[in-house]
Write a structure and sequence with these properties.
Length: about 280
């Protein structure tokens, strides 16, 4: 365990009493959670939030709410230093199945995204830079159907970075990737979060070890029980299920997986998920 010096500044994402039901069935209930800008001396330190929960509990639904793609029944999502209500396009969202336009080349897919944020000449420059950075330059003229799963994944992440501001949601970014590719996506995430102080990546994943190793904060979506011990419908993120890994000395270590405290913490999280 190594303690780093850090401090918290302004909120960059706030969930206030977010609830949603589908056809009368509560899915998410009263979610209150916040991401603050974490700062470290002489560094550009973005934030990484790991987000867990059992399959079908509502993680992807909450992602769509955080991305402004669906409105919650109650509550608000506020993003950025100005804490504005989220609208579609403000938050980058790499969905569980990453959509690219099949009739455009990889380059043109990225250009469409970049032009949503940048003037045409700048957009081209940004696209070239991202193609290089993500090791996709040799594939620029390929259509999405010809890309491998990992290439598609990186393309989808690049696409979202090109058109959104600082917040990016990755829903299952490691699924279907081999170990080398997982390492590569991990590197990209670290790179993204050290590119700008405000950059924030929220990773929804069943790969608890990989995600916890990257994160400085964790949210666990689960069910609560009422006073009589009955399960309350609708999943929520209880205060005791919002973990601060920086405080625990488990954030920003390259080899944190090798630490006994890390293994203990992962075991704890797994047990919480099993019991939720
Ligand atoms: N548009 C919708 N209408 C009705 N029910 C929906 C809708 N979208 C999602 N659901 C339901 O909400 C619940 C949560 O789904 P969600 O996709 O968020 O799960 P998840 O936690 O992401 O699961 P996984 O880990 O398997 O991806 C599921 O029961 C799902 O069937
Ligand atoms: Mg999901």
């Amino acid at each position: 365990m190594t303690a780093h010096t850090y401090a918290y500044k302004d909120p960059i994402l706030t969930l206030n009493n977010v609830s949603i039901a589908f056809q009368g069935e509560p899915i998410l209930r009263d979610i209150n959670a916040q991401v603050l800008d974490v700062t470290r001396p002489n560094m550009q330190q973005g934030q990484v939030v790991g987000f867990y929960g059992r399959s079908g509990i509502g993680k992807s639904v909450l992602c769509r709410i955080m991305a402004g793609l669906i409105a919650p029944d109650t509550g608000t999502v506020e993003v950025g230093l100005a804490q504005q209500p989220v609208t579609p396009g403000m938050v980058g969202f790499v969905q569980q199945r990453y959509p690219l336009f099949d009739h455009r080349t990889l380059h043109d897919n990225l250009l469409v995204a970049a032009q949503r944020k940048h003037a045409p000449a700048d957009a081209r420059q940004h696209v070239d830079a991202y193609l290089e950075r993500f090791g996709l330059a040799p594939h620029r003229r390929k259509y999405p159907a010809l890309l491998s799963g990992g290439q598609r994944q990186r393309a989808a992440i690049a696409q979202q970075l090109l058109c959104s501001d600082h917040l990016i949601l990755l829903d299952e970014p490691f699924s279907g990737l081999d170990v080398a590719m997982i390492d590569e996506v991990k590197r990209i995430i670290v790179e993204v979060t050290t590119m700008d102080e405000l950059n924030t990546v929220i990773i929804v994943s069943h790969d608890i070890v990989t995600t916890t190793a990257l994160a400085d904060r964790l949210w666990l979506l689960g069910y609560e029980h009422d006073a009589a011990g009955a399960l309350v419908p609708g999943a929520t993120i209880s205060p005791q299920h919002q973990y601060n890994l920086a405080e625990m000395g488990l954030a920003w270590h390259e080899n944190v997986e090798a630490e006994p405290e890390f293994a203990q913490f992962v075991e704890h999280i797994k047990n919480e998920i099993r019991g939720s």
